[in-house]
Amino acid sequence: MSGNSMGLLFSVTSFGESHGPGIGCVVDGCPPGLELSEADIQAELDRRKPGTSRHVTQRREPDTVEILSGVYEGKTTGTPIALLIRNTDQRSKDYGNIADTFRPGHADYTYWHKYGIRDPRGGGRSSARETAVRVAAGAIAKKWLREKFGIVIRGHMTQIGAVEIPFQSWNVVNDNPFFAADASKVDELEAYMDSIRKSLDSVGARLRVVAENVPVGWGEPVYDRLDADIAYAMMNINAVKGVEIGAGFGCVTQRGSEHGDELTPQGFASNHAGGVLGGISTGQDIEVSIAIKPTSSIAQPRRSINKAGEPIEMETHGRHDPCVGIRATPIAEAMLALVLIDHALRHRAQCGDVHVDTPRIPGRIG
Amino acid sequence: MSGNSMGLLFSVTSFGESHGPGIGCVVDGCPPGLELSEADIQAELDRRKPGTSRHVTQRREPDTVEILSGVYEGKTTGTPIALLIRNTDQRSKDYGNIADTFRPGHADYTYWHKYGIRDPRGGGRSSARETAVRVAAGAIAKKWLREKFGIVIRGHMTQIGAVEIPFQSWNVVNDNPFFAADASKVDELEAYMDSIRKSLDSVGARLRVVAENVPVGWGEPVYDRLDADIAYAMMNINAVKGVEIGAGFGCVTQRGSEHGDELTPQGFASNHAGGVLGGISTGQDIEVSIAIKPTSSIAQPRRSINKAGEPIEMETHGRHDPCVGIRATPIAEAMLALVLIDHALRHRAQCGDVHVDTPRIPGRIG
Amino acid sequence: MSGNSMGLLFSVTSFGESHGPGIGCVVDGCPPGLELSEADIQAELDRRKPGTSRHVTQRREPDTVEILSGVYEGKTTGTPIALLIRNTDQRSKDYGNIADTFRPGHADYTYWHKYGIRDPRGGGRSSARETAVRVAAGAIAKKWLREKFGIVIRGHMTQIGAVEIPFQSWNVVNDNPFFAADASKVDELEAYMDSIRKSLDSVGARLRVVAENVPVGWGEPVYDRLDADIAYAMMNINAVKGVEIGAGFGCVTQRGSEHGDELTPQGFASNHAGGVLGGISTGQDIEVSIAIKPTSSIAQPRRSINKAGEPIEMETHGRHDPCVGIRATPIAEAMLALVLIDHALRHRAQCGDVHVDTPRIPGRIG
Amino acid sequence: MSGNSMGLLFSVTSFGESHGPGIGCVVDGCPPGLELSEADIQAELDRRKPGTSRHVTQRREPDTVEILSGVYEGKTTGTPIALLIRNTDQRSKDYGNIADTFRPGHADYTYWHKYGIRDPRGGGRSSARETAVRVAAGAIAKKWLREKFGIVIRGHMTQIGAVEIPFQSWNVVNDNPFFAADASKVDELEAYMDSIRKSLDSVGARLRVVAENVPVGWGEPVYDRLDADIAYAMMNINAVKGVEIGAGFGCVTQRGSEHGDELTPQGFASNHAGGVLGGISTGQDIEVSIAIKPTSSIAQPRRSINKAGEPIEMETHGRHDPCVGIRATPIAEAMLALVLIDHALRHRAQCGDVHVDTPRIPGRIG
Question: What HAMAP family does its record include (chains A, B, C, D) (predicted)?
Fold first, then answer.
């Protein structure tokens, strides 16, 4: 595989460029019998859709998904599910001026040297637009995990630039444009993002994703650890520069007497592990945190070079997210779901019939 | 594969338990014609060997490697290179008391529920001892990368618990037991670690790994990104809880005008990207930072449960590293080398004959 | 992967059912810079298209392919090439009567027990219609192999039922509906096939595929041997029951003194090996022969059972090929091309820079 | 992977050369809890061991296997099972004369051009000796399949050179050096093989492998079909030139009315399919037949070339099997077992919880 597929048993093979005919993927390995409609997928797609507020790109893409295969009479058949999203809003002129130059912070320079040819329209394959297909594939994974195991996967923004966003309640996350879990922070965020846009700049973000009700025993022991596959999945999201599981970098200053989560018959006493020990799920919540870099496309002049290697100064205009992190929440949820369903199937293959008398303790006390 | 292999074209398949007959791996895909001897591998193994100072486990393991195949008259033949390290120092009695209990912070509970059976001696498969085979395999990767591309992969400790360790010089890193890049910090670290041991506790650490002279163009665009595979590899190291590329979590508060590395004919003006853009190497240094949790095995009483699910109190005695992070430096270097060689081969397969006239700019200015 | 992808570096992921919205595939790993248009692919698709003569199914499918991604300004970009063929002629009523029964010789019974659900329309996923996407993907592989190495991949029918078809000339193969390499046999075949149809029966076939100008050194030594991957690819074609390389089953009665192909500076003295020794190409022609079973769908009454397990008698009407082997020639060529390009890339990855002074001898003497 | 691993979920990674320190493999993915000892594996190894009769190579190799990992207190733990067979009888002088020449019918020429270096001692990696590790790995697969599903995998010789060997009874197969299922043929075979040896020549063979009690539903629908993976596995055996499933090449002259196996509530009326329809097992016996070429190493003078490309005449002396097919029976059984266990696990992953009310009919009537 050449880097456009992920997953061993529940695999997603992605295709498409930002301004080509369309984007999509083939989902192979979905268990048969799952009720699935385009509406199930569309609901997740709409959460990351551009143009939903003034704080994200104003590009207008309905992102309407078509199921091309693998579903018969409303149920998955166990055969590949192909999903297609046609591109509709393609203002190539916005991008014509960058065909011979390399935008700082973008993949232009690396694609050019790797392939010797690139589709410059909207970043081509390297556009964040590709993440829509992950959300679509993730919607299938999410539904199966929820119906089969009651697993709930949710994310929320914990910081945008200088503004930290405490967790208050999951209930408000989808009611504001920032996926913030604290409604009292929304006004401050609105003002902050407006100032960023006015300064023709962009800013980074940090978000948290949690999976609840994951059974103990998923994940592999040495490589393909559950947390390693999660780190892989998250770092595969455009602009992600850091990944933490559980205590994350906070563990550096912890003592073993603090970090190691104690076990009691009533449940785990804490969750510094973030739900994974020895690469295998513990039954606690899977806790993931990621850092997303500021959008590289800004309207300020920046130094770069052109194909001839000559110095140039460029400003990237067009319709860009001042904070790509904002729309990353549903993407991160989808990636976590894709990792979990793959390991659910892998576990079933090797250890599906294992039984021990030892009771499974709750993920947390009480 | 069931989680004991990594790498698509340069693959390592690992085996072995801490107290079984031995540990080892099969390295498949090494290009033919590389000069290779057991001494090349032993040199790296000795860097992570236990018992080298009072600050690491006092377990005595010579960790002597035997090449079982794939090398003829001192050169690799392109066939699988099997490496075997026999276990010698196995004090199973140290571990007999934990067969029916689950140590907090360890994989005991997860292995038990996953497999329904586990080898409790020294943690069996989940022992950090397994990382020796990665160092051995990584030594082969390192040598090929150095001879073929002049790539240099080095790591150093940046923090142990509360003590931050600034970077002064690579020259001193291998001359102190902490892989510290600042000799003036060694006394403080000695005292700090002694106090940790006296308090029967352990502590976390943070380290940095750098790969220099990586050509532009390695890595895949969507999944299997170079940074994603690096995150995967690092998170596969026992006890790692966080991974950063370049600016890492620091990018959250950065502006796009600061983070996006400008290009000039003389080179990149900065390296917040950490050497990867769009999943593909830029020609800048690959910059990775990881967080390692404190050793879970400590001699203080901790709450846990036994196989019957009953509450117990346990102290983990035996010979443990008070800071597992200390010996993680050569392991992290090895994992980075394994990712890089795999992508070197993948790049050669798909784009080996690509040529563009555009000059490759230096990784950094001047 | 769940059995809908093939190829490690040049991978094809197939999707679609006979009577769903469409069929297609994602081709990942195609080297960048290959000139490619829909016309290149259509030309191969038209060779297996139904309805081209009275000896194949009269189903009318234009099989028009659309390139959805991976091609920019007429050249491949190194990113995934997604191909879509919309289904147009779907007479589902032809198949309605078989939803609750299992056709003898078909996958109905096995799909039902494997998945617990199946799309019965036209055989759903198990329809030979899926092979169109392999021909489409194979067209890309064929073009790259031809342009890069001058490799020519051709097939012809060697036997239909009782009628053996000697090889006279490649020139006539595409000028008759049977892919026969002997024009003088065409009348006999016409009459033979007419008689088969009149008897409401079907018949098997045997065909030969040859790849010329394959360089020495492609293929892996133990598993993933070139001939093993060819056998895998051929047996993956619907209805194939046997595969031979070179002398094939003829080698059973050969002596070593006859079978072992002698080498001379002027070339190999014979090609009983079929172009592969020790799993690796020799530089001789790759010689493959396959057996294709008679079409299982015939209009004669046959015994079977229904979903309740009760005995039934059924005739399969609809528009079926009286000899599925006839349209298998372009499919077999495509499969061989897909195996060869994958190994071309794998060879380049591991041994791309190997040089020996030993001259490469011609595939055949003179 | 570079061609030394097979299997997606139950994977075998093989290593070793004929005259190196040893050969072996890592078996990854074996379900936990299987009782396993070295004796279980040794029993199968002894069936292919050289030197057991005058009709096979007189090389003396005890082929003693050591389990290095993955088994604790007599049971598999779900972690990798590493197997090592040390080489003992290495008469390198037998082979010294061929280091600079290419033996006809051997991999010498292809290895040399592929890798630019080769271990000529006993054929190095291309030696049939490597097949011992497949038998060892297959022994584990066989045991699990037998204990879990009652699957019985057996093979017997059906033809050696000109001598066809009818099937009489499984009971005699392991009581004669030819794995013949007809004791009355043994004298004729003894005389025939003696004559072959006297003539300093070798001969081909054909054998049949059968798997009984395979449940319906194993195998993938498009690629990775059960029969395709079987063809792949068999063609991966040194010297195999042809593979048939069920009717095999016999289907070419069959009519659809004959070939398509009818279904009745009492069972299938025939088994021309060989136990696979649409790539998925039917519940009938899996029927496989393979052709094995005559040994290439014969003591007659043959034409070849040397490294300089100059013509030479060579005789291959040493201790060779006059018919490599004879010892291929346990190897073919092992390869079939490895394919079946992999698909058993793959089926469990995707469709493990599928249930239909339709009764499963017997593999054969009565």
Answer: Chorismate_synth
Return the structure tokens found at C96. 């309605």
pLDDT tens string, chain C, 366 residues long: the values are 689 999 999 999 999 999 999 999 999 999 999 999 999 999 999 988 777 788 877 777 788 999 999 999 999 999 999 999 999 866 555 555 678 999 999 999 999 999 999 999 888 999 999 999 999 999 999 999 999 999 999 999 999 999 999 999 999 999 999 999 999 999 999 999 999 999 999 999 999 999 999 999 999 999 999 999 999 999 999 999 999 999 999 999 999 999 999 999 999 999 999 999 999 999 999 999 999 999 998 989 999 999 999 999 988 777 678 899 999 999 999 999 999 999 999 999 999 999 999 999 998 886
Instruction: Say whether B351 and C79 touch across the interface (CB within 8 A).
Output: no
Q: What are phi and psi of B59, to 5 degrees?
A: -55, 135
Selecting from B78, B221, B349 the residue whose C-beta is nearest the C-beta of C79 gives B221
8 Å CB contact of C351 and B31 = yes
CA C263 – CA D308 distance, rounded (Å):
13
In this structure, the dihedral spanned by the alpha carbons of residues B197, B198, B201 and B202, taken in order and rounded to 10 degrees, is -20
DSSP state, B363?
S
Token pair for residue D115?
Answer: 């890798």
Torsion angle defined by CA atoms of residues D268, D271, D275 and D276, in that order, rounded to the nearest 10 degrees:
-100
Does residue D112 register a pLDDT over 70? yes
Q: How far apart are CA A168 and CA A188, in angstroms?
A: 16
- Contact between B345 and C350 using a beta-carbon 8 Å cutoff: yes
Q: How far apart are CA A9 and CA D29, in angstroms?
A: 14
CA-CA-CA-CA dihedral for A169, A175, A176, A182, to nearest 10: -10
Q: From CA A69, how far away is CA C125, in angstroms rounded?
A: 9
Determine the Cα–Cα distance for residues B19 and B96; give it in Å rounded to an integer.
12
For chain D, how are helix, strand and coil distributed in percent, rounded to 5?
35, 20, 45
The whole-angstrom distance between B137's CA and the closest CA on chain D is 15
The identity of residue C99, as a single letter, is A
Q: How many CB atoms lie within 10 A of CB B282?
A: 30
- Inform me whether the C-beta atom of residue A277 falls under 8 Å from chain D C-beta atoms: no
Q: Rounded to a whole number, what is the distance in Å from the CA of C25 to chain B's nearest CA?
A: 18
Taking contacts as CB-CB distances below 8 angstroms, the residues of chain D near C205 are 252
- Taking CA–CA distances from A2, the nearest residue in chain B reads B220
Interface contact A277-B238, CB threshold 8 A: no
What are the C-alpha distances in Å from A133 to residues A237, A291, B128, B222, D268? 12, 21, 38, 11, 44
Query: Which residues are CB-neighbours of D195 under 8 A, at least 6 positions away?
Result: none
The C-alpha atoms of residue C19 and residue A69 are separated, in whole angstroms, by 10
pLDDT 10s digits, B209-225: 999 999 999 999 999 99
Question: Closest partner residue to D107 among C259, C280, C354, by Cβ?
Answer: C280
Please tell me the distance in Å from A247's CA to the nearest CA on chain B: 7
Contacts of A31 in chain D (CB under 8 A): 350-351, 353
- Picking from C159, C201, C256, the nearest residue to D298 by CB comes out as C256
Instruction: List helix spans (H) across B154-225.
Output: 186-198
Helix (H) / strand (E) containing A109: helix A108-115
Residues 6+ apart with CB under 8 A from B129: B16, B18, B23, B61, B87, B122, B123
For residue B59, give every residue at least 6 positions away whose Cβ sits within 8 Å of its Cβ, in sequence order, or none: B50, B51, B89, B319
Q: Which two tokens stand for residue D152?
A: 């019985």
d(CA B345, CA B28): 12
Q: Evaluate whether ipTM surpasses 0.95.
A: yes
